[in-house]
Amino acid sequence: MKKVRKAVIPVAGMGTRFLPVTKSVPKEILPIIDKPTLQYIVEECVESGIEEILFITSPYKRNIEDHFDQSFELESRLAKNNKLKELEMVQNISKMCKIYYIRQGEPLGSGHAIKLAKSFIGDEPFAVLYGDDLMKSSTNKPVLKQLIDVYEKYDCNVIGVQEVDPSLVYKYGIIEFEKDDKIKSIVEKPNVEAAPSNFAGLGRYIVKPEIFLELDNLSQGKGNEYQFTDGMLNLMQKQDFYACKFKGTYYDIGNQLGYIKANIAFALERDDLKDDLKSYINNLIK
Ligand code: UTP
Fold first, then answer.
1. Rounded to the nearest whole angstrom, what is the distance from the C-alpha of residue 131 to the centroid of ligand 1?
2. What's the whole-model pTM score?
3. Residue 222: pLDDT above 90?
4. Interval 260-283 mean pLDDT
5. Domain limits at 65?
6. What are the pLDDT digits (tens) for 94-106?
7. Is residue 260 part of a domain?
8. Cα of 110 from ligand 1 centre, angstroms
C-alpha cells in the first residue's frame, strides 16, 4: 500500500458567504485569534506526516503565498531588534513543509480545482483539505491522521464525517452507509425526510489517484460548478470508500457564525486569554 505523502488544499473559491471582507482578503487567511486558518491546516498536515502540499490558489489570493514564504525585511528587523522569539516563530512558518502553488484561472468548483493537482500527485493516494474547514482534534491525533489510519486499515478512499443536527442536513453532503463505516453514497444537501443518515462529509478526504479519471469526465453539477463530491460518487462505483468518524470539532470558517465560534473556542484554550475572555462574556450576557 502506498503511503499518503501529499496534500491538496483548494483555496481559490470566491468566499461569497463572507463578503465584504473576502473582496480583498481570502477567508482562508483570516486569523483565528492571531494565526491564519490556513496555518492551522498546514500544521494539521505536517503533524499527520504529510511531506508536500499543493495550494490551488487564484490571482486574488497572493497573500497566502506571502504568508508561507520567507519575509526577509521582517526577519532582518526582528533579528536587529533582538526579538528572537518572534523571529523563530516567523521563520518556522516558511520551514514547515514543502509548499507548491498552482492557479485556478476561474473558480469553476472544487472538482475543477482539485483536477489541477493531477501532475503534482502522479500515481499516489493523497489528502484533500478544504481551506475553510478548520478541525480541532479532541485527541492527540490530528483529524487528518485519523483519516490516514482508516486508509491504512482498509486500503480505501476515506471521507471525514461527523453527525450534524438533523435540522441542518440540508446544508451538507449526507452519507448513506452500506454496512458499518463503508459508504454506499452521498446525498447532496437533502431535506430531513430524504436524508439517509445525519452524518455529513466535512472537508477532509483521502482519495486514490484514479479520482483524476473521474474529475476529467465530470459534468457541471450543483450551482453549475464541477463538484468534487460528484467525482467521488463516480469513483464509488469502482472503489471502496469508508467514513472516518473523527474525534474533534469542525468549524466552517467560511461563514460568520462558524468563524466567531472558532475564535472563541480557540481563545478559551489559551492561558493568556481564557480568564479575561470568560469574565468578559459573563458580563456581556448577564
Ligand atoms: P467552498 O464552496 O466552501 O468555498 O469551497 P467558496 O466557493 O469560496 O464559498 P462561497 O459559497 O463562495 O462562500 C471549499 C474550498 O474549496 C475552494 C474554496 O476556496 C474553499 O477553501 N474552492 C472552491 C476552490 O479552490 N475553487 C473553486 O472553484 C471553489
1. 8
2. 0.96
3. no
4. 97
5. 6-254
6. 999 999 999 999 9
7. no
8. 6
